[in-house]
Amino acid sequence: MEEQESLYQIIITEPAYEAFFEIAEYLHDHYSDSRATEITSQLFEMVSTLNKHPERGTVEPRFKHRLYEYRFILFNRHRRADIKIIYFIDSEERKVFITDFFPTEKDDKKISE
What does pTM read for this prediction? Predict the structure, then answer.
């Protein structure tokens, strides 16, 4: 019971949902439906693990000037392409805000603001 209270709530922002659905669409266009579904499920499973240890992600240097400290974890889609899951933690409210799903093969200057 005590462990349940220590969990963080995960909130996926609207821009992050949009990025996720773009990735899902790409996967369904380039992989079998079962493989695309498997990858998207694994991606969401990885996001859900942030409810216990959100601070484990690497600090995102591009957002050092922000109010919150942005972090990221990498989801390995295949050996040449990862998806960077970008988020920040509101420790006071015990919430993790997912702000972007960013394929690493894209230009990182295009990461959602």
Answer: 0.84
